Amino acid sequence: MKFSDRQSEIIEIVRNKGPITGDEIAEKLGLSRxxxxxxxxxxxxxxxLGARPKFGYFYTGKSILSQLYDDLKKLKLKDYMSLPFxxxxxxxxxxxxxxxxxxxxxxxxxxxxxxxxGIVSRKDLIRFMxxxxxxxxxxxxxxxxxxxxxxxxxxxxxxxxAASLIVEKGIDSLPVVEVKxxxxxxxxxRFTKTNVTRLFVDVCDGEII
Length: 209
Hints:
GO terms for molecular function: DNA-binding transcription factor activity. This protein is α/β, with parallel strands linked by helices and about 210 residues long. It folds into two domains: about 5-60, Arc Repressor Mutant, subunit A, CATH 1.10.10.10; about 75-205, CBS-domain, CATH 3.10.580.10. The chain has eight helices and nine strands. α1 packs across α3 (about 35-45) and α2 crosses α3 (about 35-45). The protein starts with a helix and ends in a 5-residue tail after the last helix.
């Protein structure tokens, strides 16, 4: 946000002299309190300045972006994750390929007994299909990335943590899990680059925060 010259001057006064009353700010500017009332209202509304009765205005050190950042870090995955897609590790590579393209997924979570054991991506499948193996008879367990080499998140983690992990590891999606007995991981959702993009659009459209 671009501030007017007067607003910028008010911010500097409060930053250096706060807490300070509106009358004192106006006096330093050589203006009336009524003249700067709208400026003070805008600056407090967007949380650049704080105000307390009988205390005056003070500098918060925050901007709109920093406030947005704080709010985004509070969003939980359980409210923004997608439905999970998984298959048993005995499923053939052929069937996994069909499911991936039918659902337009970038990866498939692999389970055994309902618990997470691995993950396979489109790249893994394409790389394997270049060879001569029979994809209708070869189980997906042959080429999947196995635990504990699978990155995952908990549904109570923040969307910020999940998005950071996606960027850091250069992956397309993360299984969202719930820890069961014996530390078994039940897949309860998925969080992907698409989820991050949708979240960004919703924030810009004002539908979130």
